[in-house]
UniProtKB/TrEMBL annotation:
Belongs to the UPF0410 family. It is a multi-pass membrane protein. It comes from Neolewinella lacunae. This is GlsB/YeaQ/YmgE family stress response membrane protein. It is found in: Cell membrane. Keywords: Cell membrane, Membrane, Transmembrane, Transmembrane helix. It comes from the Bacteria. The keyword DNA-binding does not apply. One of its GO terms (cellular component) is plasma membrane. Its main location: membrane.
Amino acid sequence: MSILAWILLGLVAGAIAKWIHSGKDPGGWLVTILIGIVGAVVGGFITRAVGLGAATGFNLWSILVAVLGAVICLWAYRRFA
């Protein structure tokens, strides 16, 4: 995927993760986008590690994987920040 697609996927995943895991955050929308992008990478790593396949392209599976990773990253960010 291109950089623009990763940023767009990160925005979507970060916004959905923030909606799922709502509460006070020390960061704003930029941090949410960054957490979404990192979450997409983390989610892809987790799904490949357990044998579910990688996220490819901008589709429903990629969004679900990115949101899963973003929720994990958002939880960790709130826990340790």
